[in-house]
User: What shape does this take?
Amino acid sequence: MMTKQPRAKGIVMTSSGREKNIFKRRKNRFRSVALVAFVAFVMLSPQAREAMLGEFSSIDEFIASATATYLPYQVESTYTVSKTSIVQPMSGYGAERILLPPTLYSNFGQDQHFVYESGEVEENIVLQQTLKIEIIVDGQRYNIPTNGVPHKYYDGLGSSAPIVTNNGFKIWYPGLYDPSTMDADEEKYYCNVANCVMVQPVYDGNKPAEYSFEATVNSLSYSWWDHTRVDNRVGGKEFGINVDNSGTISDYALRSSQTAQQFSNEQHFSDYGSYKIDATASNVIDAATQISQRLPDGLSDNVYAFARATFDYLHEKVVYDKLAPTPARTGPECLSANKGDCDEQTNAFLSILRTKGIPGWYVFGLLTDYSFSDTGWEAHAWGYIQLPLSDEWCEDKGITLSSCFVNAQVDVVNNKWLLSTTTAYVDWIEEYESKNAENVFDYYRPSSPGYDRDRSYSTIGSVDNAQGGFQVKKYPEYF
Assistant: This one.
């Protein structure tokens, strides 16, 4: 009940006869947790505090860790993903190219992870391996070679006839189109981005045609980041990079990095008249300048520091947009709007990196959630970047400087810094851009002109996650 003469709005009399202001704002949860974390830190012994700061660069990072949200992932997974296409009737020729998932290695783009001065090599680790591929049409299953050994078919005149299903669908896996040896008329019967399987449906009157592509995959999580935040069950840390063992911008030229030469153009992938990656735009240059100014003295040329600071900058400035437009925003447009979906934030990330000459390129595929739920899958795009390790680190381990790089995945919107996870199914990784700039465009348009199809994704059967899961917390890195 209210007091007879309230001194202030919201003061009530409790059952014990005491006054209480029910409008008094509750303490912010974040501040409360941060205060508890700080007090806990202060109460530790000097030895314990020193050990704690061995894992965290500052008290700010310690508090951020205590209050940060996280995303869960699996250490290793074996699963089957289905891509189901429903195609509307069309006249004339029509076929879909479905990419065969590549074998993914720990240092994509190089035959070995590192080459030692002794001549020995550090072998790559397989992060994604396809165990089985099938095409399903009207309940019938047709096996497809996981390596895509060409099964040529050119309008019935190729070296071997296509697989013909009971209801007339044609299935073949032709290899890549080679303009130097093939006629232009043959192009539509071949893969145009990477090894694929092609499906040409037939229609029952005006009814849509339906078919599914199922791939069974074994996948490992892997980190190229050497940091205490990375779970010890995740491989890669022993050869990982951090701010202390990072090389400098000049190392790309000094070591004649072919990757840097291939993926450092200031403008890349023109779509609908605008470059998706554009390091020449004024707002991209402004963002790069702001990021550089945030770095402590001595880290202005540190490749790792700038790349990580760019990652954290985008988390701070850009929010995820579930209703992103078509065509997708460019990197500059994403920064201007302060929002973007997966490929748009990747465009912004790679645009900023290229202002410094840091090479970055696209990776495309699918993404699902921690539980691999049937409805968790969606099309996804993220990036690869190349980072040099320092001369001292390379020489100490006897690694040739020309091979002393990490080629690592970065997924800005999902807080995956130098991390590959089992929830990301890789379809295709961009190759030499001056040769394959059109391939990015073709990836988004895998079907014949006028081929009207809807696609959905799902998990088939059970998923083997025998090694359990780990967490990735979302908070900045403090230098």
